[in-house]
UniProtKB/TrEMBL annotation:
<keyword id="KW-0411">Iron-sulfur</keyword>
<keyword id="KW-0001">2Fe-2S</keyword>
<dbReference type="InterPro" id="IPR019480">
    <property type="entry name" value="Dihydroorotate_DH_Fe-S-bd"/>
</dbReference>
<keyword id="KW-0813">Transport</keyword>
<feature type="binding site">
    <location>
        <position position="237"/>
    </location>
    <ligand>
        <name>[2Fe-2S] cluster</name>
    </ligand>
</feature>
<dbReference type="GO" id="GO:0004589">
    <property type="term" value="F:dihydroorotate dehydrogenase (NAD+) activity"/>
</dbReference>
<feature type="binding site">
    <location>
        <position position="234"/>
    </location>
    <ligand>
        <name>[2Fe-2S] cluster</name>
    </ligand>
</feature>
<protein>
    <submittedName>
        <fullName>Dihydroorotate dehydrogenase (NAD(+)), electron transfer subunit</fullName>
        <ecNumber>1.3.1.14</ecNumber>
    </submittedName>
</protein>
<keyword id="KW-0408">Iron</keyword>
<dbReference type="InterPro" id="IPR012165">
    <property type="entry name" value="Cyt_c3_hydrogenase_gsu"/>
</dbReference>
<dbReference type="GO" id="GO:0006221">
    <property type="term" value="P:pyrimidine nucleotide biosynthetic process"/>
</dbReference>
<dbReference type="InterPro" id="IPR050353">
    <property type="entry name" value="PyrK_electron_transfer"/>
</dbReference>
<dbReference type="InterPro" id="IPR039261">
    <property type="entry name" value="FNR_nucleotide-bd"/>
</dbReference>
<comment type="similarity">
    <text>Belongs to the PyrK family.</text>
</comment>
<keyword id="KW-0479">Metal-binding</keyword>
<dbReference type="Pfam" id="PF00175">
    <property type="entry name" value="NAD_binding_1"/>
</dbReference>
<dbReference type="GO" id="GO:0050660">
    <property type="term" value="F:flavin adenine dinucleotide binding"/>
</dbReference>
Amino acid sequence: MIRKFLAPVVSNTPLAAPGHYVLTFHAPELVQEVRPGQFITVAAETGAQVLRRPFSIFTADAATGDASVLYNAKGPTSTAMAARKPGDTLDLVGPLGGRVFRADPRPGVRHVMVGGGYGVPPLVFLARTILDADPDADVTFINGARSREFLVGTDGVEAMGAKLLCATDDGSCGTHGRVTDVLNQLLCDPSRPAHVYTCGPTPMMEAVAGMAIACDVPCQASLEVFMPCGLGICMGCAVQRPDGTYARGCFEGPVFEAREVVWQ
């Protein structure tokens, strides 16, 4: 059920990447319902008339009732969030998103997460969900950025039990190149079934989706489209389908099968 919360801030931790933070807030009812790929919308200030901004859920801890978002403080809302201190409140609405990531149930499948930038949080949430359900699951996380300091959000991935691979434009960490260079090596191995889950900049997701489709590997993508209302009303997040119709990114999405989207 979609609700509005004035959630107490638990912590607001700066990361090594300039301007990046993880804000943890207390919202037990949200935590009980939210699923990987869903998001919240946040108001810059309580009662503010500025449009709310969407943020994917990064972590959700049922034991504590705490959830978190990872963000870059560069706009009015995220800059206001950076000033939040423990005990302050966060004006949010959620959980939003009608279609979430769905873990492939096939035995022995290799779950491959491909993320970059803002796309990392929902994939970390998905990896945690898969490994909580099956600690022996095969999960590989590919994180891409322009340099090492911008590889945000995956510090705890290996402790979960996932394999972490990185790609950087300048070669400062992992493969010198793009995430698709790393993904190609995994998809070229036909010995085990794979399923790709991706979120990040649209050009990156388009390349990932194209590679998965070419290899006949299932691929789910959480689209990063402008979502003015987050409720499926304004149609500002329209996503074109191959049949010429449009889906609402916030309502029929944000997660789509790669073949369901016109990427150009």
